[in-house]
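REQUEST FORM: STRUCTURE PREDICTION
Request ID: SP-0412
Submitted by: Lab K.M.
Chain count: 1
Length (residues): 437
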Amino acid sequence: MGSVDANSWLDWIVAFAHRVQGYIAQPWTFYQFAIIAGCFAVAYLLSLRIEPALEARARRIKGNPGLLRVIVAFMRRTEWVLFLVFVEIAREIILATTWPSRSYMLSLALVLGFTWLAASVLTRIIRSRAIARFVALCVFVYVATGVLDIRDSVEAALDSVAVDLGDFRLSALFFVKAIAVTAVLLWAAHLVGSFIDNRIAANEDLSPSFKVLAGKVMRIGLTVLAGLIALNAIGIDLTALTIFSGAVGVGIGFGLQKVVSNFISGVIILVDKSIKPGDTIELGDTFGWIRELRARFVSVITRDGREYLIPNEDLITHQVVNWSFSDSYIRLDVDFGVSYDSDPHEVTRIAIQAAQSVNRVIGIKKPVCWMTAFGSSSLDFKLRFWIADPQNGLTNIRGQVLLALWDAFKEAGIKIPFPHREIIMRTPVEVRKADET
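STATUS: Completed
RESULT:
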């Protein structure tokens, strides 16, 4: 177990306090603090009127959500922008009228304020607000310690807080550096991966399955590479991770079987192109079209707006009906019957014309109609037609064809029969006589 060098901490704090106290004791330091406070107060009051109008104008930007997010973040810090402008004006006035040393606090406030504004705005491209704030704070602290000329002292103080783990020395400085370096590299890997993924998705020459597969491989590869670079940058020997990787492998083998199985199944699905985004599939009672392929599951949206997250393993081990695997043409059947006094040849012709009048019925494959049986009360027919957009629904297109048949048969005078029942009512006398006989 390491020890904390309390004396070095105390000496550093005392020395820094003496420096601050010596500078604050000067009259011009008080004046600068008053100027800084006044600039911020005026900037805050002005921002209450200016910020809503600027943000409303910024939200009119269309087609670039990333740029809009940064601009809106910039507009929401209008008080800081105005504050920096006022401080710079005050600093220039003081430099022109008196000694440069009397504007040191204004220069310090200008540098720190600009650093905080830039860090807080630029980190808005990070979607996680917690991570964005952490990165902004790290950048601000790093620049602030450099401006105050205390970075070496702070690093030495943090390095003195350490714990010895065998041959490895874990200090507070190492911990902070490890988190900062890892966060920055993973963030950079995410940005690069998103950029490459968008470029791949915009290429119309690639198939949808290959786009998804290439995007996932690039993201995973960049994340692993960022992790390895981070470990190497903070001084960890990668060969020392052999035992840890073996333990992780055992954990994956026992505790993460389903996760790994779904991941491998997702890769297999993308490679063999059995399903792809936009396909219409049926799995059990779920019928819908694929919106997205993920590493662990497939997102399927049904006609009623429900989104099912189906594990990739189920698509490998269960029977899946892909309505648009080879092509998007789907054949549907509609059964109907007409009265016996109708001409079956005329019924067939009218039924085909009625189906062709529906917009979603394609003309490449013409509808057909066949008489299938002499029913108990009707001549039975089966009408077959083709559509090319099953994702837009099947029940609705059958309903449209049935309505077209109804209108066509009504215009042609063809009747659609329905069952008739004859009910004979008897009086009690008739029933008693029937029982006696």
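NOTES: Residues 58 and 72 are 6 Å apart (CA to CA).
Reviewed by: T.R.
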